[in-house]
Design a protein that fits this description.
The structure holds two protein chains of two kinds. By secondary structure, chain A is mainly alpha-helical. Chain A folds into two domains: about 70 residues, no CATH class; about 220 residues, Orthogonal Bundle (MetI-like fold). Helices cover about 80% and strands about 0% of the residues of chain A. Chain A has 14 helices and no strands. In chain A, helix 5 packs antiparallel against helix 10 and helix 12 runs antiparallel to helix 13. Chain A is flat, with a radius of gyration of 24 Å. The model of chain A has no long low-confidence stretch (mean pLDDT about 85). By secondary structure, chain B is an alpha+beta fold. Helices cover about 30% and strands about 20% of the residues of chain B. In chain B, helix 9 runs antiparallel to helix 11. The longest helix of chain B has 17 residues. Chain B is globular. The chains are: A mainly alpha, B alpha+beta. At the A-B interface, helix 2, helix 3, helix 7 and helix 12 of A face helix 1, helix 3, helix 7, strand 16 and helix 14 of B.
Chain lengths: ~300, ~525
């Protein structure tokens, strides 16, 4: 088990190292921060001055080594623009993003799993067809369309919900639904398919034969077994969302999250912020994957045994 | 459920400031730092006037250069190179410190004798002539220049020489007796000035909260609190105005004005900003080296049509690089740029234009209507036989040797041709520095007469000579002064004042009032 954990950790470090390196060089290839920071043009002399001020006058390898050294020492650099530690800037943004991610996952699980189970149980009736049709539409409509539509109806026309920031629980309603739309659609389909696989299994027949009530059969024997597939899909989707999925939603709702920060720092070429932001997000993805593995093992004793 | 949601939305509105004497502004962008000295961005200029003062003030209700006492109560020349200023007594900074000559000397010399690179950069393009500030006594300072300065008041009214507290700033990092780079970096996250509003909360890039400073030396600030929050999406900004989450919003696109004006509870205010959207042409690109080609590219553009189509005729198309705000130096009768497709065709023939594709670079969103204007311009070029292509890029290509043509802006940093054309197109200025504009000894000599002549007529004549040079060998075409709009609740009485530099959110006494408070 220790060897397994060590292996996972080393793998994680290698992944992060590759990401750090890629991000470091990719940001520098994408353009210079000089113009975006200093407005309308610079004289040649001023350019030199500012390049030195930002430490960009060193060779790219020196910069790279300095950056790696900083990471090891826990110093991730100062934002070019704000001149304060990037870790502080990113830390400010992680909270709101995680909140939105959590509310979206809760809503997704609360809606998609019951819908998926219902769609499997009533697959022959109009109920199942209706659910699957909805899921199909939900999957096809991008989150910014859902978001814009909701803003138009619930804020612009009816003035029921706020659109700016994360100040109260009401602020969560529209962004959460917008973020969850595609997730719910996908997870409903996966839940249905997983349940269909399970419903035909021998142990389900046995459970019914034992005289267990149908709800217990469905929930305890059916859903528990279907859950493994559902969990793995959910984990992947959450990771995807954490990585990039919320940029547009954050922008529409002026949500002070990390997606928006990454886009802004990419536009202004604020290398230190961009680098640390991408690393933080990568770390989140890696951790979510690890958590999914653990949840997996909890849900399915066979996985636990195999991995031990 | 509906009742509950309505209540919540109402509460959210209250929480964000629809209360009396409080407002919330939804801005397209919020600064990442707040330091009037190093900043000259359009985003930044929104924020400084509420919190900081200059020595010499200005009547912003007028475009005339109507100078007013501010932190200095009087100023006199004691010799041709030295101005002496008497400081207002009893002025305090928002942190409670008294403002004295030490703070003034510190603030001015941080720019005049800059050591912090961002100050050096800002200082050189407009304050190069200012040598130093000297304390005479606690309420008297002298400012010395290298050469006789025709623009004393203008250059003491600049955002960059707003006054900041010495002791507070020096103590922000490292040695509290020494001004270090770290002090200025820390200041820009926790700014303090002498103005009517203190910055009570600042989340870089997200939010600025102004709170009335009761110790302000001038007229009491009309608002208790003003919060500026970033709402990047235009549609969200307009929605926030409708839901009451914002009382004023910035950067309303021209095609959205009708939507807002149609709402009985809302209104719009706007003005043609003191800034040109310009087209720049790389004089050193092989395909554009012949001035006749660039003249043709310029003459082919019907800017009035662009104005009608993109700005509903509300922008201002200039005949030369000049603005009414420049007072005595405003020269609207100079004709440097015009529309003459026949002449464009003739010049192209004469230059032997061979059909080389000419690219027009534009960011997809940075300038309002920038992409549409680029597309229209390329169409206008094709009518005189130029093969053009719009190249959408979010990278600044102005310093690339491959640049052919792109859009840019020439703001009016202060009300003088030196504050607009003069900053951007000076010898060794940013345009020449980026390698897309050349000057020679003759140009430098004319420029010098324009910059330093003490006689207004001599400055005007020299400027006209510069414009002739630009006309014959054009690196730039000012397209128009864009029409910039703000929208607000009907109960908010606010409008951009004509005497400000572009985009200033002025909430001082006499600049804003709330009808329902």
């Amino acid at each position: 088990m220790i060897a397994y954990i060590l292996r996972t950790l080393i793998k994680m470090c290698v992944t992060l190292f590759v990401i750090i390196t890629l991000v470091f060089f990719a940001t520098r290839l994408s353009g210079s921060p000089m113009e975006t920071f200093l407005g309308e043009g610079l004289t040649a002399e001023d350019r030199e001055l500012m390049i030195a001020y930002f430490g960009l006058d060193q060779s790219i390898w020196q910069q790279y080594l300095g950056y790696l050294r900083g990471i090891v020492e826990g110093n991730y650099g100062l934002s070019f623009l704000e001149r304060r530690p990037v870790a502080d800037i990113v830390a400010e943004r992680v909270g709101p993003s995680l909140q939105l991610l959590a509310s979206s996952v809760l809503l997704t699980v609360a809606v998609a799993i019951p819908l998926g189970v219902l769609a499997a149980l009533y697959r022959e009736s109009w109920v199942g067809s209706a659910i699957m049709a909805l899921a199909f539409v939900g999957y096809a409509v991008p989150n910014f369309v859902i978001a814009t539509f909701m803003v138009l109806v619930f804020a612009f026309m009816w003035n029921l919900l706020p659109v700016v920031g994360n100040g109260s629980w009401a602020h969560f309603i529209m962004p959460t639904i917008a973020m969850s739309g595609v997730l719910i659609a996908a997870l409903t389909r996966f839940t249905r398919n997983a349940m269909l696989d399970v419903l035909g299994q021998d142990f389900m027949r046995t459970a019914r034969a034992k005289g267990l009530p149908e709800t217990v059969v469905i929930l305890k024997h059916g859903l528990r077994n279907a859950g493994v597939t559902v969990l793995s899909v959910l984990g992947l989707q959450i990771a995807g969302l954490a990585a990039a999925g919320n940029v547009v939603v954050e922008s529409i709702f002026s949500w002070p999250g990390i997606g928006e920060l990454l886009v802004q720092s990419a536009i202004t070429r604020d290398y230190p912020v961009l680098q640390f932001g991408v690393i933080a997000v990568s770390l989140a993805v890696v951790v979510i994957n690890a958590l999914t593995d653990i949840a997996y093992a909890v849900a399915d004793p066979r996985i636990r045994l195999a991995k031990a | 459920m509906k009742a509950l949601l309505t209540t919540t939305a109402a509460l959210a509105c209250l929480a964000t400031g629809a209360l009396a004497q409080q407002i919330t502004v939804g801005a397209a962008n919020v600064s990442s730092y707040l330091d009037p000295g190093r900043d000259h961005s359009n985003v930044g200029s929104q924020f400084y006037y509420n919190t900081f003062d200059t020595l010499i003030g200005k009547n912003h209700d007028s475009i005339e250069a109507d100078w007013q006492p501010a932190l200095a109560t009087e100023w006199t020349m004691i010799d041709p190179l030295t101005m002496e200023l008497k400081l207002r007594e009893g002025v305090t900074f928002q942190n409670g410190e008294d403002m004295t000559a030490d703070d003034v000397v510190f603030s001015l010399n941080r720019m005049y004798q800059a050591t912090f690179p961002p100050y050096q950069v800002r200082s050189k393009d407009r304050l190069a002539n200012f040598a130093e500030a000297i304390k005479v006594d606690d309420y008297t300072v002298q400012v010395k220049v290298e050469r006789e300065e025709p623009l004393w008041e203008t250059l003491l009214n600049l955002q960059q020489v707003m006054i900041i507290p010495e002791d507070y700033t020096k103590a922000l990092s490292g040695d509290p007796q020494v001004a270090e780079d770290g002090d200025f970096e820390a200041f820009s996250l926790a700014p303090v000035g002498t103005g009517p509003y203190a910055v009570s909360e600042f989340v870089p890039g997200e939010k600025v909260v102004y709170t009335r400073y009761d110790g302000f030396w001038g007229d009491k600030a009309p608002l208790e609190q003003a919060t500026v929050i970033r709402i990047p999406e235009t549609a969200s900004r307009i929605t926030a105005l409708k839901t009451g989450e914002a009382d004023i919003i910035t950067n309303v696109a021209p095609d959205q004005l009708g939507l807002i004006d149609a709402d009985a509870n809302l209104k719009t205010e706007g003005s043609a900003t003191a800034l040109f959207h310009v087209m720049i042409m790389n004089v050193n690109h092989p395909a554009l080296e012949d001035p006749r080609i660039r003249r043709a590219l310029s003459l082919a553009i019907d800017r009035d049509t662009l104005n009608e189509a993109l700005w509903y005729g509300k922008a201002i198309v200039p005949s030369t690089h000049t603005m009414a705000e420049m007072g005595a130096l405003h020269q609207p009768d100079l004709v440097t740029f015009e529309y003459d497709p026949a002449e464009a065709k003739r010049l192209l023939d004469a230059a032997g234009y061979d059909g080389t594709e000419i690219t027009f670079d534009t960011d997809p969103v940075y300038y309002t209507n920038g992409l549409l204007a680029a597309q229209a311009i390329v169409e206008m070029w094709s009518e005189v036989g130029v093969k053009g292509r719009v190249n959408t890029t979010s990278t600044w290509s102005g310093s690339s040797p491959d640049l052919m043509v792109r859009n840019w802006s020439n703001p009016m940093y202060f009300a003088d041709p030196f504050g607009s054309f003069g900053v951007m197109w000076a010898p060794n200025g940013p345009s020449e520095g980026e390698g897309r504009f050349n000057t020679d000894a003759e140009y430098a000599e004319i420029w010098d007469r324009f910059r330093f002549s003490s006689d207004v007529e001599a400055r005007k004549a020299a400027y006209a000579e510069l414009m002739e040079r630009i006309k014959d060998n054009p690196p730039v075409l000012p397209l128009y002064r864009p029409y910039e709009s703000w929208a607000m609740r009907k109960g908010v009485n606010w409008a951009p004042k004509p005497g400000h530099i572009p985009y200033v959110l002025d909430f001082r006494a006499g600049s804003i009032s709330l009808a329902d408070s």
